[in-house]
Amino acid sequence: MIYFNVPPVAGGEEENIRDAIRSCKISGDGKYTKLCSRWLEKRTGTAKALLTTSCTHATEMAALLLDIKEGDEVIMPSFTFVSTADAFVLRGAKAVFVDIRPDTMNIDETRIEEAITEKTKAIVPVHYAGVPCEMDTIMEIAGRYHLKVVEDAAQGIMSSYKGKTLGTMGDFGCYSFHETKNLSMGEGGALLIKNESDVEQAEIIREKGTNRSKFFRGEVDKYTWVAPGSSYLPSELNAAYLYAQMEKAEEIYNDRMRSWNRYYELLKPLQDEGILELPYIPDECVHNAHMFYIKTADLAERSNLIEFLKSRGIMAVFHYVPLHSSPAGKKYGRFSGNDVYTTGESERLLRLPMFYGLAAGDQEKIADTIYEFYKGR
User: Is there a smaller number of Cβ atoms within 10 Å at the N or the C end of the chain?
Assistant: First the structure.
């Protein structure tokens, strides 16, 4: 069996966890949480990186920091995970969905401006598959209309746009360290904060509405409840697991990139023949090999290929069902303009097995099986 995903293990996770246990500090914001945060700050150049229990919670923190309220509108693609919308819908906002670009599957930056109303509060670009959105245009629109930008960079660790790290161009950036991501802590995430002026409030929200972070730094002699908040701190055990992978992040990145390039070389003849499509990476973008997908002719062909691969012991999966077509999407959101590409392109997309340590021989088997499927047709 060739699994779709195998959670990354860099080698130092168990020792780090044992070290955390021996420290008698496993509840969060200990040695390893601080090491992970410093790694992110150094790597990205962001003003502050706060480790969270998930990317979902990082996005919820961003919504709280933006003071999203009932009646506000937030622009985002429909082709994304539910957390992108949930974070804002929970605050009473309406999700305003716009179409995607068929080449990158990212939000179509040329459709954002027409979706803006007097109720619009923020734009949430989603960097699909770790391939950056067209951020210059998005930031220019946001600046002109005085809107905030929250980058959903759940899949974007170590990717960049014109030399700028994903998650650092908007007001806030949100990372995921779920078991399917390039770097993992099982469940977890991080909030990247661009402006120093937002850091103190973010710390308060993350610490259940208290100024506990200031207390630990010796800035106040006791901590107390100062604002609404919640508990967004991950366990120190999770952070210990993650830091082992951060120490080998370049090795993991290079391994995944080799696998991504190998897929591309193996399957390019099928694209050249017009049988399927492969991912497109714009020149100004550096991606992180988070995902390798192909696009079939249509939904029926994709379904048949999934079953064919499964019959050969290969797990390949489709991705998001567009949010605007879901019951909650219809209730809490609306689609701006026409759905020219979102549904059609999402129905064609098929993700192939992709993880750290994926064997070259397994990739060759996957490619051979895909060739076999199309030869039979």
Answer: N
